[in-house]
């Protein structure tokens, strides 16, 4: 990629997207946001990519919106204006996805591949918003978290008022959002904000090992459908969720990946899924 606020690398069918403003703890700017979306589009459109890892360069994951922008009163810059004007947004990753996942910041759930956040350091404000839109979160021991908004005179923005209580429950979300206190990776694990805590020097290796298992042994089609089902579940009744599951199961029976899933098991060989 020509711009350098984001680094992009593909290896073993895993795309690693790295926020690359280490001197600012990878603080968010409109330019970084545009490059991040372009990287996710690139990974989405590449049939050679099956899993995405999002991480940060240097000591931080993402320290939130760049304070220089906040001081100037621009917050997320032009991205905020675009969020209020759907005509200004790029094409959605999945046009059939909920409008909830077609805004400037909320598009990760519409990316049809698992996104795993490897949280290597400070994760605050808008950085936490992005981490919560990932499908899973692995954190380095010692990483610090905060919602930050209330201590900046701001509110729970960009959907965190939905994603955070979805993970930790209403009262714990209220605590983290209203107090905007800092909490560490161990507490994040206890609360359910993150899924694993690892020694800092093992974070990327462990995240890649998990991602590689998905890339090598799991149907890409199944991952995409299951991800869509889970992110939509809050918008459906139980009956609707059952009906969607039944429809998707019938479609799965006709897929190449289903035939391969049975064949590799019966033949006791590694899977060779195509995603079709």
Description of the molecule:
There is one protein chain. With 276 residues, this protein is α/β, with parallel strands linked by helices. It has two domains: 6-214, 2-enoyl-CoA Hydratase, Chain A, domain 1; 219-266. 42% of the residues lie in helices and 15% in strands. It is built from eleven helices and ten strands. It has helices at 30-45, 67-71, 78-83, 126-133, 160-168, 170-179, 185-191, 203-217, 220-232, 238-253, 256-266; strands spanning 6-11, 14-19, 51-56, 60-62, 115-119, 122-124, 136-140, 144-146, 183-184, 196-198. A hairpin with a 2-residue loop joins β1 (6-11) and β2. α5 crosses α6 (170-179). The longest helix is centred in the N-terminal third of the chain and has 16 residues, at 30-45. The chain is globular and about 55 Å long. The two termini are 29 Å apart. This is Enoyl-CoA hydratase. Pfam families: ECH_1. It comes from Pseudaquabacterium pictum. GO terms for molecular function: catalytic activity.
């Amino acid at each position: 990629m020509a711009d350098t606020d984001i680094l992009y690398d593909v290896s073993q069918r895993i795309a690693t997207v790295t926020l690359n403003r280490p001197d600012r703890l990878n603080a968010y700017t409109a330019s970084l946001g545009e490059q991040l979306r372009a990287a996710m589009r690139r990974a989405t459109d590449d049939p050679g990519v099956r899993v995405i890892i999002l991480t940060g360069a240097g000591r931080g994951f993402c320290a939130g919106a760049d304070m220089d922008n906040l001081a100037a009163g621009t917050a997320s810059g032009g991205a905020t204006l675009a969020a209020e004007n759907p005509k200004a947004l790029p094409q959605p990753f999945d046009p059939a996805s909920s409008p909830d996942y077609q805004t400037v910041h909320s598009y990760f759930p519409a990316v049809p591949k698992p996104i795993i956040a490897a949280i290597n350091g400070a994760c605050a404000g808008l950085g936490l918003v992005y981490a919560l839109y990932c499908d899973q979160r692995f954190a380095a021991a010692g990483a610090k978290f905060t919602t930050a908004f209330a201590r900046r005179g701001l509110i729970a923005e960009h959907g965190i008022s939905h994603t955070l209580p979805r993970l930790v429950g209403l009262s714990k979300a209220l605590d983290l959002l209203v107090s905007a206190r800092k909490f560490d990776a161990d507490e994040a694990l206890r609360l359910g904000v993150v899924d694993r805590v690892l020694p800092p020097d093992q974070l990327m290796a462990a995240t890649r090992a998990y991602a590689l298992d998905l890339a090598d042994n799991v149907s890409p089609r199944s991952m995409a459908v299951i991800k869509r089902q889970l992110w939509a579940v809050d918008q459906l009744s139980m009956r609707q969720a059952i009906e969607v599951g039944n429809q998707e199961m019938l479609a799965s029976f006709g897929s190449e990946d289903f035939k391969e899933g049975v064949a590799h098991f019966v033949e006791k060989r590694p899977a060779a899924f195509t995603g079709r």
